[in-house]
Amino acid sequence: MLGLEQTFWDGGCLRLAGVDEAGRGPLAGPVVAAAVVMCRSLAEREEHGCLAGLTDSKKLSPAVRESFYRFLRGCADIEIGVGMASPEEIDRLNILRATHVAMSRAVSNLPSPPEHVLVDGRPVDGLPCASTSVVGGDATSLLIAAASVVAKVVRDARMRELDRLYPCYGFARHKGYGTAEHVQALFEYGPCPIHRRSFRPVAEASAITEGRV
User: Fold this and answer.
1) In a domain, 185, yes or no
2) 3-state helix, strand, coil in the chain (%, to 5)
3) Residue 20 carries which DSSP code?
4) Most buried in the list 17, 75, 122, 172, measured by CB within 10 Å?
5) By the 8 A CB rule, do 68 and 51 touch?
6) pLDDT digits (tens, 9 = 90+) for 137-172
7) CA angle, corner 205, sides to 90 and 166, nearest 5?
8) How far apart are CA 33 and CA 29, in angstroms?
9) Looking at the domain assignment, is residue 13 inside a domain?
10) What is the CA radius of gyration of the chain?
């Protein structure tokens, strides 16, 4: 999980960040990105220690994700930046551009700027520093995997908060994804302020529920 990082470290890049996002696919809520920086000595020490088994957050159970998150947040030698793009920005920009905005905000919110960014997926426009895109990076890069976990845990917590504001949709359970439960509630109650109205099921539900008025 450190092969790519070691290449950059060996080349003299000391402040290297991993970046990933959570929440591109849901029908509601923000898209959240995280950036994680850790020094080489810590990463190499903990790769087979406290960070053993760290990988793409989608492949980890909630309990395991939370355990990794607590370590990442609690370690003074690990820097974390988080950025979000709102449902309104997603509708205005489209989900890809909004995701890039969230990633740029995450990098900018690090305590100190990184020299280079390893980002999961395709190339990202608008980052405040040089970057390398890595398809499937959350399963092959420790720094990207760490960012994946942070983004997922932060977004899930935000959706639980939003569930208290809009309890009829079940956001705490499905986190805004288009489950049968969510779609049924969407067509029954119509969209709420955190729904992404540019996404087809939301637009269809809006047209139907507004037509009842």
Assistant:
1) no
2) 50, 15, 30
3) E
4) 17
5) yes
6) 999 999 999 999 999 999 999 999 999 999 999 999
7) 70
8) 13
9) yes
10) 18
